[in-house]
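During data preparation, a discrete fold description was generated, as reproduced here:
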Amino acid sequence: MAEPEISERFLEGYAGILAEVAETGRRLTRDELETRRALGREAAEAGHQLRALVRRHLAETRAAWPVEAARSSSADSVLAAVEQVVDAFAEGFERAQRLTVRREEAARREFIDDLLYGRSDLGRLAERATRFGLRLSRAHAVAVAAGPEAYNESDAVPRSVEAALLARFGGRKILLTTKDGRLVCIAPGSQPDVLRYFAKQAHAATDGHQVAVGRPHRGPGGVVHSYDEALDALDLAQRMELDDPVLYAADLLVYPVLTRDRQAMADLVRSELGPLKEARGGAEPLLRTLSVYFDAGCVAAETARRLSLSVRALTYRLERIHQLTGSDPSDPMHRYTLQTAVIGARLLDWPAKEI
């Protein structure tokens, strides 16, 4: 993009100041310095580069340099005036730039909040998205990474992940940000490699914490839908004690299906597992035993190893579950019902919460 032509307005009065300083040796007045700052602000808002503006001031200095000043002791005064002018001009320019950056950051944060909360008019949201490199008419997917601490965009972890993504996918339409202390990456749904790479980098940068990836969805509302799926996957992993480093919402659809009829699931949990509360120590140890047993493929030796039990102690627990519930975990006829009830118990946070 070509640099806009520098207007003579930004040098207005400069040659006259140099001539007067050469004659009197005075320094710039407060009003003159404020005028230079104001011109610097205008130049920044007009999209000029400070380097080009300083070069233009120096060229004007050479053109307007009083001949008599070059041959007298007033040369020091003229050079001091040049220094004051350029310094004041640059100060105004930099103030305007900082203000612009703050405005851009505020606009970006407002856009991200609206996008991930599903607020604002969807048509207007799609228009604003183009400014940040997103085309919301297409499908997008969202990945979310939790960490050992809350992050904001200026922290080292988000910046290192962003640097890795830009180095590999510099030409892609990607938005990396933070939300509620988590890392968030929004990418086109047709480019799953971006989110896979983000997940790899974020998992490493957050010391092995989990990353969840929502499914691709189309339109302005698609981003918030995918974001919600990723958040739900992280929450589900915690409740179900899933330890996969990367969780894909598409692989976890069975869980929301199981809880779609919450009342029916609660009835199943109470009916099938409620009697475990009568055991010594309550239901939790036996519920944990069932959960690990099913995760281990119903292999007793592997289950005992994971629970740090002897096979004999595990067998006793399974028999006790059979006695209390009337369902035998080792019987394929009973196994499906028990396993579904165990999943329901984790999803409903039973027995910690009454259902």
Summary: The two ends are 63 Å apart (CA to CA). Strands lie at 139-145, 175-179, 182-188, 211-213, 217-218, 246-248. The CA atoms of residues 191 and 258 lie 30 Å apart.
